[in-house]
Design brief:
The complex is a heterodimer of chains A (about 750) and B (about 150). Chain A is built from 18 helices and 31 strands. Chain A is α+β, with helices and mostly antiparallel strands. In chain A, the strands form 9 sheets. Chain A has a 7-stranded mixed β-sheet, with helices on both faces. Chain A has a 5-stranded mixed β-sheet with strand order 17-25-24-23-18, with helices on both faces. Chain A has a 4-stranded mixed β-sheet with strand order 2-3-4-5. In chain A, helix 2 runs parallel beside helix 3, helix 10 packs parallel to helix 11 and helix 14 packs antiparallel against helix 15. Chain B is an alpha+beta fold and about 150 residues long. Chain B is globular and about 45 Å long. The N and C termini of chain B lie far apart (about 55 Å). The chains are: A alpha+beta (about 750), B alpha+beta (about 150). At the A-B interface, helix 5, helix 7 and helix 16 of A face helix 1, helix 2, helix 3, helix 4 and helix 5 of B.
Chain lengths: ~750, ~150
């Protein structure tokens, strides 16, 4: 059975879809009416000049080579393979003939060119399928015309068209020219998902060879003739701004072309949510060679002054929100006190209240109250922030690593005073993102520097610039109070704070599973900038919620998995409230799968095992972690429900990576501040997980179903923290409430 | 500025640059060999790993004046067509996620295997511990190395 779907839609509404990013699918599909658009990537290898365009996503050459354009920026989630797989599946293309190419930014041709929120595959799913099916249908129509047979009698497989009764057959390549002359079909038929042949298998990374041979894939590798090296110097402390610097002396140094201070944002421009505003004025140093500029950067001496408080109204998906950066030099010790004061103060906004929470606590058998905290985290992508920019008169070409071009285009146009249409944004592969590159102020900085020096520049952050430049995962604290009656969870109160945002999602589990529930929150302002970090808020809330449930399950004398499953059964059979944001059955499904894959019930008592499950970014994840008596992570069993798994081995790789990232950040991740200055600026002090601390074995399982796919970049990550904390408790007898956990385990570490 | 004659990937290269210029920036800026990556600049992450007479070194912290006549091999010199056994193992196990650190990982692994064709798990971990992978591909890196050491069948 196939599904027929209309391809033609009106103008896309990206912002509307973006606002609903957590929920609804985007099913519209934009045909590129403009055949001269900029989607053809300036390919460094495998050029295919004969390729003819079938639609914005697919080109085919008479040779049979099929070019699959990948609209979303690649940062390791492997869209360069999974997206072409979806296109090729519906096209019935021979995978061996598919060449993946990264598209440039082109809002007219593509939907949602945004890498973030674990939404790449989820939100592109229908567009990719329709594009693939449409290309196939055009090839079929061309063959039908040529052979004078009904299109319905033509079958396709592995890039071959066949008409069985006449015995006629043709390769896709031979039909390419005729197909490319046809117009886009108004309706296409999509395959029955049960008939997928390519999707669900494992295909090797289409960029694998370029990676292992060191080809110039990344932003830092990008340059054109005459490109100058640019670096910035930002204030050493948040809350400071530049007063003066020895720029005249710097300009005289070997190889230095220019040194100047510049505004990073246009003063009267209304920032959007993704515009950073930590350091609105920077020093730029521009030179011929990297080492010369690095030496000049070290030789710079500057005076810094206190920056005034900033009160602004920012734009976010069509709404306006106030944002306040107070004046002053902040320290982590005072942050901790501020958060404690909020949690003890009672003056919080109630986000959801079910039942009668106070009466439930009054009549309970047992009440447990715990407070959990976690520090700021630096993203520490291996490739530091950088961008290439060439501003020539009113024409702008920028290229580099960024997750969210749509959010920076207007900011860039305003800063340069050049129309948005004159700006070409090219995506390079990103050396990691984790949310950091959704805040691409560095792109604006590169372009502003290029405009000032009238030459193409490549802006490179040093590791120190990168780690001390802001956009951290916020620091959070949450207090959870729960009550048992007859060993059942009858009350759950969660009070959350954080700097500069709180961490509460009020309709998440265990909301819906507890009769008396209250969620409340209050945020604290700061001038230290923060941003999305792999599974924002969830990456902390999972640890608090799932550590608490573990502890209260133990008080109830229940098995950790049974206790959770009972709550989920309640949420399914007789849910409290109507807005619960999760599907209890799928949630329970991953717990059951993890129980089975880990052999949870049969593990000897001496095994230090911990479990946790979480739902975020549309996918369900459970983790069982086993630590040895030396507290090393021995085995991890990951169970995922992300619907259809597109590229199985790559999906497993991503889950393995999320587990290792989770273990690393849970044990070691921490950024602190003293008088506004980040206490760590490079990997000598900022501890990253290395091979020695990585789990010895990771086993990944997927719930098999035909639900349209959701993402995997973020969902496996949050439950790693509490599963580890719960396993470490088994090994040590000590519950862990503060991250990073290694500090609690070994004070000398 | 002094002039240096270097042996990079079996080719003679003459470079005029400050004596304290790290080899990394000579490779990237002067020779367009950008497979060697900048990660930290202080020899803590391993992204810039190259071979100096067959040993893994951090090119970000090796001044050009100290290179002398040593034979330098970069990822481009390992093979341009991914035919080196370590590159092949990386592809076979589809190791990479973002891929940024992998040139450095491959250079560390190939130096290890050249010296010790059959490293134990502990020896692999010891040798690879200086290379950070932010995406968390450590398990696959280890498996890929073990496959070359004949350890995978165990």
């Amino acid at each position: 059975m196939t599904t027929t779907i209309k391809t033609a839609v009106g103008r896309r509404q990206f912002l509307k879809a973006g606002a609903a990013a957590g929920g609804g699918l985007m099913i519209n599909f934009a045909w590129s009416a403009d055949m001269t658009d900029k989607t053809e990537f300036k390919q460094r290898n495998k050029p295919d000049e004969q390729a003819l365009k079938l639609n914005a996503y697919l080109l085919i050459a008479p040779s049979g080579d099929i070019t699959a354009m990948v609209p979303n920026p690649e940062f390791g989630q492997n869209v360069m393979t999974s997206m072409p797989m979806v296109l090729a599946e519906e096209m019935d293309a021979d995978w061996q003939r598919v060449i993946a190419k990264q598209a440039n930014y082109d809002a007219r041709a593509y939907d949602r060119q945004f890498t973030g929120g674990s939404q790449s595959i989820h939100q592109a799913w229908n567009s990719l399928r329709v594009a693939g099916a449409s290309a196939r249908q055009m090839l079929v129509a061309a063959a039908a015309q040529q052979w004078q047979v009904p299109a319905s009698e033509i079958s396709t497989e592995q890039s071959v068209l066949r008409h069985h009764s006449s015995g006629k057959q043709s390769s896709y390549g031979a039909m390419a020219s005729a197909a490319a002359k046809l117009s886009t079909p108004e309706e296409v038929s999509l395959k029955d998902k049960a008939d997928f042949k390519l999707i669900g298998n494992s295909k090797k990374n289409t960029v694998g060879e370029d990676i292992v041979t060191g080809k110039p894939l990344f932003g830092l590798d990008y340059k054109t003739e005459g490109t100058l090296v640019a670096m910035i110097v930002h204030p050493p402390a948040f809350g400071q701004e530049l007063a003066s610097a020895n720029l005249a002396a710097i300009k005289k140094m070997d190889g230095i072309v220019d040194a100047f201070s510049f505004e990073t944002v246009k003063p009267d421009y209304q920032n959007n949510y993704f515009d950073s505003n930590a350091f609105p004025k920077l020093v730029a140093i521009v030179g011929l060679k990297t080492w010369q500029v690095l030496k000049a950067k070290r030789a710079l001496t500057a005076e810094w002054s206190l920056r005034p408080a900033i009160n602004e109204t920012i734009r976010l998906f069509g709404t306006e929100t106030p944002r306040f950066y107070p004046q002053g030099l902040e320290s982590s010790t005072s942050h901790t006190q501020q958060m404690q004061a909020v949690l003890n103060g009672g003056d919080m906004e109630v986000l959801r209240a079910d039942g009668d929470i106070n009466a439930a606590f009054d009549t309970a058998d047992t009440v447990l109250e715990r407070t959990y905290t976690a520090p700021y985290l630096a993203h520490n992508t291996m490739e530091p922030m950088n961008f290439y920019a060439s501003v020539k008169g009113t024409s702008v070409h920028v290229a580099g690593p960024l997750q969210a071009p749509v959010f920076i285009q207007g900011t860039l146009a305003a800063r340069l005073n050049i129309p948005q249409d004159n700006i070409e944004i090219e995506f390079t592969r990103m050396g990691g993102g984790f949310g950091r590159r959704a805040y691409s102020h560095y792109l604006v900085e590169a372009a502003a520097i290029s405009q000032a020096v009238k030459a193409p520049v490549k802006l490179m952050y040093t590791r120190e610039d990168d780690m001390t430049g802001g956009i951290y995962r916020p620091t959070y604290s949450v207090k959870i109070k729960g009550a048992l009656k007859n060993n059942k969870l009858v009350a759950y109160r969660v009070s959350g704070t954080g700097i500069p945002e709180h961490c509460i999602a009020a309709d998440r589990f265990p909301a819906g599973a507890v009769d008396n529930y209250l969620a409340e929150a209050k945020a604290i302002d700061s001038n230290i900038t923060t941003g999305a970090f792999r599974a924002p808020r969830s990456n902390f809330m999972a640890s608090a919620e799932q550590s608490f449930l573990d502890e209260i399950a133990e008080l109830a004398g229940a098995d950790a998995i049974d206790f959770r499953l009972e709550l989920l059964k309640r949420a399914k059979d007789n849910p409290v409230g109507e807005k619960n944001d999760y599907d209890p059955e799928r949630y329970a499904g991953v717990l059951k799968l993890a129980r089975e894959s880990s052999g949870w019930d049969k593990l000897p008592k001496s095994v230090n095992k911990g479990v946790a499950a979480y739902f975020c970014h549309n996918s369900y994840a459970a983790q069982v972690i086993i630590v040895d008596d030396n507290l090393a992570v021995d085995k991890v069993f990951s169970a995922m429900d992300c619907g259809i798994v597109v590229n199985r081995d790559a999906a497993i790789n991503m889950v393995e990576g999320a587990v290792i990232d989770g273990v690393g950040n849970a044990l070691f991740g921490e950024m602190t501040f003293t008088d506004g200055v980040p206490d760590k600026s490079n990997f000598d002090r900022y501890r990253m997980i290395r091979m020695k601390e990585a789990p010895k074995e990771i086993h990944v399982s997927f719930v098999e179903n035909l639900v349209d796919p959701t993402g995997l970049g973020e969902p496996p990550f949050p439950p790693v923290f509490p599963a580890l904390a719960n396993a470490l408790y088994k090994a040590t007898g000590t519950r862990l409430y503060e991250q990073p956990y290694a500090k609690q385990l070994k004070p000398s570490n | 500025m002094p002039t240096y004659t270097l042996n990079i990937n079996d080719e003679k290269q003459t470079i005029t640059t400050d004596a304290d210029t790290p080899l990394l920036w000579v490779l990237r800026d002067d020779l367009d060999l950008v497979g060697t990556k900048f990660g930290c600049g202080i020899a803590q992450c391993g992204a810039c790993t190259v071979h100096l007479n067959g040993s893994a070194v951090r090119s970000c912290s090796l001044p050009i004046s100290a290179v002398g006549e040593s034979k330098v091999t970069t990822i481009e010199g390992l093979s341009e067509d991914a035919s080196h056994p370590v590159q092949k193992a990386w592809l076979e196990h589809d190791v990479a996620q973002c891929g940024y650190c992998q040139a450095g990982q491959i250079m560390s692994a190939s130096a290890l295997l050249a010296k010790n064709p059959n490293p134990s798990e502990d020896e692999i971990v010891e040798s690879m511990n200086g290379n950070i992978c932010r995406c968390g591909t450590y398990g696959r890196i280890k498996t890929a190395i073990q496959s070359l050491a004949g350890g995978e069948a165990k």
